[in-house]
Write a structure and sequence with these properties.
Layout lengths: L2 H29 L7 H8 L3 H7 L3 H23 L13 H12 L1 H9 L3 H4 L3 H19 L10 H21 L6 H14 L1 H5 L5
Helix pairs in contact: 1-2, 1-6, 4-5, 4-8, 5-6, 5-10, 8-9
Length: 208
């Protein structure tokens, strides 16, 4: 086996070990708060020894930090790759961004459930949920700036970004809290329709 092939095998083994550790930690976080978890809990659940854990992470908070950064980096990369600057809103077709966002949450349900409903910033040492909010906000900012409109937005850009990003973020959180009773595509379509209608029209205030 060549040096390159050996390196590939080693890299795959490391990635698999890290995956076992991450999955074990996520499972534990669904069962108890982070302050109640010790390294022994993680290593026993992942079936690895303590030296293996410490070869990659300094403690459970370092593990959590790596997990969140890796997953949100993946989400950002997917959003960047899927960006459609010619998108035209359609009441009967979900916005591709909402489809991607909710499908990724659905495919990585355990991670996002932990991120949005189980991590207390006071005990975790960081507000990781706000990091997801930042990813969503940045995605909308990129879409708006790509429009190159001659006229200004009807409301200040910072307020517009807050409104649309907080809406998507908290709808995602509520969806997880309610055990995803709707499909990801249904959620994407409803957010698309709400975005097209606006709150007052959706409530019926602007209808005759």
């Amino acid at each position: 086996m060549s040096v390159q092939q050996n390196q590939i095998v080693t890299d795959r083994r490391i990635a698999r070990t890290k995956q076992f550790i991450s999955e074990a930690f996520l499972a534990l976080l669904l069962e108890k708060d982070i302050e109640g978890i010790v390294i022994k809990d993680i290593t026993e659940r992942a079936n690895v020894n303590r030296s293996t854990f410490y070869a990659y992470y300094s403690d459970k908070f370092d593990l959590l930090d790596h997990m969140v950064k890796d997953k949100l980096s993946q989400l950002t990369a997917l959003i960047d790759a899927d960006r459609n600057e010619t998108y035209i809103p359609d009441f009967n077709a979900p916005d591709p961004f909402f489809v991607l966002l909710f499908s990724q949450i659905e495919e990585n349900e355990v991670f996002y459930r932990v991120l949005l409903t189980r991590i207390n910033p006071a005990t975790a040492g960081a507000d990781y949920a706000s990091s997801l909010l930042g990813v969503i906000r940045d995605a909308f900012y990129a879409r708006i700036t790509a429009l190159s409109m001659d006229q200004k937005q009807s409301v200040p850009l910072d307020l517009l970004l807050d409104y649309i990003s907080f809406s998507a973020f908290h709808m995602a959180r509520k969806w997880l809290e309610q055990r995803m009773v709707y499909s990801s595509r249904h959620m994407a379509l409803q957010l698309t329709r709400l975005s097209i209608l606006g709150a007052y029209d959706a409530m019926g205030f602007l209808r005759n």
